[in-house]
Write a structure and sequence with these properties.
Order of helices and strands: EHEHHHHEHEEEHEEHHEEEHEEHEHEE
Structural class: alpha/beta
CATH superfamily of the largest domain: Acetylglutamate kinase-like
Strand order of the largest sheet: 3-4-2-1-7-9-10-8
Strand content: 15-25%
CATH architecture of the largest domain: 3-Layer(aba) Sandwich
Number of strands: 16
CATH class of the largest domain: Alpha Beta
Number of helices: 12
Number of domains: 2
Shape: globular
Helix content: 25-40%
Length: about 425
């Protein structure tokens, strides 16, 4: 079987014309047979599309915002192509399609499915531009719609992979193309059994790379980031962060669970199951070693710090003078699962349950409304959750000094604290 390699480029690595030229240099210098190139939406396009959705939901005009996103993509194309290139009408056509979707009546449908149908345009447009540029530079490749290969259930925004069908489609549709040319495809997006667009969760392009690597039994995956590899802390927050040369799958998975943003949380498992190594490298310094994630002997003892902003603390207090029991926790978790809300920290007392969740449009209001008859509910917003793996007393004290701690939780290896007054 021919060797297969997967490269994934995130939004920051294709944010402008110069970045896409850099992508070409990276791919050109490392291109081997059977290469899959997975790209995210350009820059902050997904955020911008989410802002358009918010304006639509509020009944406000979003045409100016849409025009700015179109202009952003056309400006990138002007830096890459001749004015007579077909990429310009292609991009404009995608935005015409986007307008038609946005003109649809959201009230008649499901917000999550509407969300997926809108934000997916970011990846579709970026992959077309990257594909066209690589071909124009003589690096001929095939454009592939990821929705034809990656099949999911209909759990919009957080779709679950149909692994058997996806693996079969990888071998049937993707493998023959890879024997001819490299393939450019989209991260983050997929389709359900009815052909409707689904997404894999925010920042899900890493997961796409792992899904395709799993389906193709790839030899390696490389994720190109704006950092030199996996660091023990965000270098934008901590000047003394250090890079791991290698990291075990389990250690990497645990860091992503606590919120380390360098890799999507679901990326590790499909690779670890087949012992496919994952490389995290810098698109700014592509010749540096990066970090290799694979099976590693020994235990890491270096402290790792993960900081999550915009957290919400929700407290559920029983009102009938009983104590918290399993049925109370079950009620809360059932509603969390229905709303697709993940819990980043859980703590119980005799009469209350406290959870820490992400800020999600509409979700907090629905959670409170649906549980209002069972609990007295209070919440605090704009908080910061700090997690330290392999903690020590000196580091813990340094991280919380000057902050008001609302919750603390500690195990042998992990310390978590939820704070007000964040400045990290």
């Amino acid at each position: 079987m021919a060797k297969t390699f997967v490269f994934k480029f995130g939004g920051a690595s294709i944010k402008d014309a110069e970045s896409i030229k850099n992508l070409y240099e990276i791919v050109f210098n490392r291109l081997r047979n059977n290469t899959i190139i997975v790209v995210s939406a350009m820059g902050k396009t997904t955020n911008a599309l989410e802002e358009i959705l918010a304006l639509k939901l509020e009944g406000k005009d979003y045409s100016l915002k849409s025009a700015k996103i179109l202009e952003y993509h056309l400006d990138i194309c002007e830096g890459l192509f001749d004015s007579n290139s077909l990429i310009f009408p292609t991009v404009r056509n995608y935005f015409s399609q986007l307008e038609r979707v946005l003109d649809g009546n959201l009230a008649q449908g499901n917000y999550d499915s509407f969300y997926d149908s809108v934000v997916s345009f970011g990846e579709m447009i970026s992959s077309k531009i990257v594909h066209e540029y690589l071909c124009a530079k003589g690096l001929y490749c095939i454009w592939q719609d990821a929705r034809e290969i990656i099949l999911t259930n209909s759990d919009f925004r957080f779709a679950k992979i149909d692994w058997e069908s996806t693996s079969r489609l990888c071998q049937k549709l993707l493998a023959p193309k890879l024997t001819q040319f490299p393939v450019v495809t989209q991260g983050f997006i997929a389709a359900d059994q009815k052909g409707r667009t689904t997404t894999l969760g925010r920042e899900g392009s890493d997961f796409t790379a792992a899904i395709l690597a799993h389906g193709m039994r790839a030899n390696a995956v490389t994720i190109w980031k704006d950092v030199d590899g996996v660091l023990n802390a965000d270098p934008k927050r901590f000047s003394d962060s250090v890079k791991f040369e290698e990291l075990d799958y389990k250690e990497a998975a645990e860091l992503t669970y606590y919120g380390a943003s360098v890799i999507h949380p679901k990326t590790i498992k499909p690779l670890a199951n087949l012992s496919i190594p994952l490389y995290v490298k810098s698109f700014i310094h592509p010749d540096r070693s990066g970090t290799k994630i694979h099976h590693v002997q020994g235990v890491n003892t270096v402290p790792c710090i993960v900081v999550k902003d915009n957290q919400i603390l929700v407290s559920f207090k029983v009102t009938d003078f009983t104590f918290i029991n399993e049925s109370h926790i079950h009620s809360v978790y059932t509603e969390l699962e229905r709303l697709k809300l993940s819990v980043n920290l859980l703590q119980t007392s005799a009469i209350s349950i406290s959870i820490v969740i992400e800020k999600e449009l509409f979700k907090l209001e629905k959670l409170i409304y649906n549980l209002r008859n069972q609990f007295e509910i209070r919440y605090n917003e704009s908080l910061q959750l700090i997690t330290v793996k392999n903690h020590n007393p000196v580091l813990m004290e340094k991280l919380v000094i000057g902050k008001e701690a609302l919750l603390e939780q500690m195990t042998r290896t992990t310390f978590q604290v939820l704070v007000k007054n964040p400045y990290l």
